[in-house]
Amino acid sequence: MKKVFAEFLGTAFLVAIVVGSGIMATNLSQDVGVQLLINTISTVFGLYVLITILAPISGAHFNPVVTMVDLIEGKSATVQFIQYIFAQALGAITGAMLANAMFSYPLLEASTKIRSGGNLYIGEIVATAGLILLINLLVNQKNLVVIPAAVAAWIGSAYFFTSSTSFANPAVTIGRTFSDSFAGIAPECAPKFIAAQVLGALIGLGLAKVLTREK
């Protein structure tokens, strides 16, 4: 249960960072570019710290598609998969509530920020595929020590180069539906984002298999 709690806690803090920095960004500036930069910097540093301190405990997934890939790869059991994704989803909602509370927003509010369109779904596929690819390649290369920095760097980069601003995480997507802020996503838009993330994860796993298979 220590592992499950670590996934809950890590995902909660991650969503609190994403949503909280999004709210702070809109409080500090009306420039969307500056808002995105603030949101990105906070997420990159926070994600790096969370992975570094919690990876030795739970693996620091904080992301159902990362857990899904572990299940497909036979690195985790079905029971752990269910426990992890439940903890991640609950953690994400808790994190959104925490961020809302810190900035005197209603604890739970439905986002009204519409994020839809084929271009955004492609962005999510690319962001998630890249995330899964880099994790699997680094694990295969036994280069685990750089994973926290590599994951944080990829997500930070993808905030800017993908049209969707790189959610790349179904749990975070769920959490962000509960905050009507710069970082939010309307609930009706979430299912297609999540579907794109799952597809992206499978593509990333496939690419990793191609690049690591023996001749």
Short description:
This protein is mostly helical. The chain has helices at 2-28, 32-58, 64-72, 78-102, 118-140, 147-161, 170-176, 190-212.
Structural class designation: mainly alpha
Order of helices and strands: HHHHHHHH
Oligomer: single chain
CATH level-four homologous superfamily name: Glycerol uptake facilitator protein
Which blocks of ≥5 consecutive residues have pLDDT under 50?
A: none
By CATH reckoning, the class would read Mainly Alpha
The percent of residues in helical segments reads over 70%
| Euclidean distance between termini CA atoms | 41 Å
Relative strand content: under 5%
Number of distinct helices: 8
- The fold-level CATH name is Glycerol uptake facilitator protein
